[in-house]
Amino acid sequence: MGEKAVVLMTHELPEEWQGDTLNEYQVVLAEGGQKGITARLRDRLADASGIFCLLDDPIPAEILHNAPKLKVVSNLAAGVDNIDLDACTELGIPVGHTPGVLTDGTADLTLALLLSVARQLPKAAEDARRGRWTSWNPTGWLGADLKDSTAGIIGLGKIGYAVAQRLSGFGPRLIFTSKHPKPEQARILNAQQVSLDELLRTSDFICLHTALTAETRGMIDKSAFQIMKNSSILINAARGPVVNTDDLVKALETGQIRAAGLDVTDPEPLPPDHPLFRLENCLITPHIGSATHQTRRSMAEIALRNLVAGLTGSPLPHCANPEVYQST
Fold this sequence. Notes:
Blueprint: E1 6-9, H1 15-18, E2 26-29, H2 39-42, E3 48-54, H3 61-65, E4 72-76, H4 85-90, E5 95-96, H5 103-118, H6 121-129, E6 150-154, H7 158-168, E7 173-177, H8 183-189, E8 191-193, H9 196-202, E9 205-208, H10 222-227, E10 233-236, H11 245-253, E11 259-262, E12 282-284, H12 293-311, H13 323-326
Parallel strand pairs: 1-2, 1-3, 3-4, 4-5, 6-7, 6-9, 7-8, 9-10, 10-11, 11-12
């Protein structure tokens, strides 16, 4: 028997998730508490056949070019914006991801953020805890109604669609944007496809569910906030860089928009002293859209299947750059 193939893992998985899947391989784990391809992993790049990484582990072209034996990169995430996908494709390296499985968890979290911000739940709970709840106050902790409002969804992919389904039960008018016409989805949801400007101008609630691309990076910026209603609430459960952070801070500080709920930020994580944490009209959670027991375990299982498929020369069950197979 030959030597075991080397797999670099940026993060350890629970034993019950991993099982004996990688017993046939030599697994090299990154140093605890560090992100990306750490010094320990860099030392083994020349021998690595596979990389198993997380959504915030940068995998640039420089790493790929220093791993001549690399057969697969498996990302424990639906998106792959942390990986130089073009470089992987040029080198013939398939990239695995975990689409679909986190749709419901992320959609649920989006609704939780939206309702929490709309009804001022963090502030109300904190005031109750600190003894500021002394009597029933007819004007205390007033929130925003979803019924008869306009809810806009930017990006009607799987997650955006799932969010729209959940929102429909609350009685808002639903509008959405998409790169392509979606008349059937609009009919089923009783929603209307509109331009980005119209969505920003008319929505009371704006939910971001677009992928991070060159076109969407920073799309919610100063000019976008100027179009929005002063009463609008922004929810971002997509990717942090879709929103210009400095412009968001100013919009929240000046009342240009009412509030924001963020499960993703730019940078990520935000430093504890960041201005957004000081604002009562901003609720931030630590990228937990997929953080349910079943979802995260399913993501790990898919990512491991992608990894093993690549290591054994089989097509990845979920490949982010399937064109690598067209050129071979």
